Amino acid sequence: MDMTDGRARWAVSALFFANGLLVGSWAPKIPVLMARLGITEAMAGLIVLGLGAGSLCVMPVFGAMVARAGSARAVRVAAWAACSSLVWMSVMPGYWSVAAAVFLFGGVIGGMDVAMNANAVAVERNRKRAIMSSCHGFWSLGGLAGAGAGGALILAFGEIFHSVMVTIAVAGVLVWALPRLLEDRPAPDAEKPPLRLPRTPLPYLIGLMALTAMIPEGAILDWAAVYLQREMGASLAVAGWGFAACAGTMAVMRFLGDALRRRFGAVTTLRASAGVAMAGLALAGLADTPGPAIAGFALAGIGIANMVPIAFSAAGNVPGLAAGMGLSVVTMMGYSGILLAPGSIGFLAEHLSLGTIYLALAGLLVIPLALSHLAGTADFEKR
User: Which PANTHER family does the record associate with it (predicted)?
Assistant: First the structure.
């Protein structure tokens, strides 16, 4: 491995951290925006849906840009557009202007997501060594830093100061990382891929794997605390450990995931991950007290951690398909799970216990288990 390979690997990892920092910093802004605009939970919910809509609308555009101009160029455009995006919504004066700013925030964050994952695939190919799971580990660290520091900064110095400080931090990362990215621009005489979604079913099946892996992650993120508090009588402090346990084990396993994938292969790692996640969700769903439920969420995090990174590597290495187009499909389908799960589970929770829902989500992971053989394209280094 030469020094250029090492710089490219750390550069794309830094971009994952920056993207996670922006997304994590968005979370504590939601109650601040509600207070400033004087809006209800339902109206805030529409703004949050706008973020998801922005991502889903813009991801295919950047997928096409990756296919036509390379991931390095696409990620530069998306990253600089995303850099100051928190400031946009902080200075907008009214509900609809804030909603528009959040829609744009979702778009550029989603576009950056597609492009940086495509660049990570390019680095994997160049190094002939898996790095995707650890890249997502850096995203988890960024999200933890953004969410952890965001509330304290807003409380101490205000919404605009917080947004400016995050912008400065992200800009610093971009100034260092972007010149060091692996350049993967297509050759001038290379045939330009058509600007349309793939017609082969393989990316959509891999996207279904990502979708069914991300729905349980969203369900733990949004509903674990409610489950522990309302159905088990846990205190608010204890209830917060539900998602914390999942997020902690998930971050650790993402940094271990590349080595596991290199040793056992993507298909075996995915199958084992799905099995562990199913066991964790089942334990959480069957638990009668907070302790076993929290242990179940921690076990689920171990399993969920590497399912999506493997799906992304598989999508970026589908034979005969530009990495950007495959990844745009998988990211759209995968992240729609995080976007659709909270509302759907909220509706179901009016009729079923959350314990029953977590048991059902364990059953949902039969789908990626059944489709796991399709993840073989992620083992590019063995072909």
Answer: BYPASS OF STOP CODON PROTEIN 6 (PTHR23514), INNER MEMBRANE PROTEIN YBJJ (PTHR23514:SF13)
